[in-house]
Amino acid sequence: MLALGRSLYHSETGPLARNVSGLNTLRGPDTVEINHEDASALEIQEGDVVNVISRHGETTARARVTGRSPKGAVFMAFPLVSDQTSLLNDPVVDPAFGLPRYMPCTVRIEKRRT
Q1: What is the percent of the chain where pLDDT is above 90?
Q2: What is the model's pTM?
Q3: What is the gyration radius of the CA atoms in the chain, in angstroms?
Q4: Which residue from 45, 57, 72, 79 puts its CA 20 to 30 A from 92's CA?
Q5: Which domain, by its residues, includes 17?
């Protein structure tokens, strides 16, 4: 299960936060937090490039192996550097505000083979 949330380096969605100089440098590349037990079962180590795949799309990110994410769940910050994370979610847009529905969705994590 993928949960999307905020990053320390922005409090708005990408289109607004990308306009603040320096945030992309501070935040760095997209990452996906994965529980250490799940990472071990998938033979994923800290910093490995992984594919994050949902029924709506896929993207790549660097793995952050952590105990903060519960087993069976992964976390990614709302898109800031690119909009690739948005491709994972349901493309339905809230009719009142025109914003995407950032709801949890099922994803598969695969270690990217070189």
Answers
A1: 28
A2: 0.71
A3: 14
A4: 72
A5: 2-111
Q: Round to whole Å and give the CA distance between 28 and 43.
A: 24
CATH of the domain at 26: 2.40.40.20
Task: Residue 3: name the closest of 32, 29, 23, 28 by CA.
Answer: 32
Cα–Cα distances in angstroms (integers) from residue 60 to residues 83, 94, 112, in the given order: 12, 26, 8
| DSSP secondary structure string for all residues of 19-59 | TSTTHHHHH-S-EEEEEHHHHHHTT--TT-EEEEE-SS-EE
Q: Output DSSP code: residue 5.
A: E
**In total, how many domains does the chain have?**
1
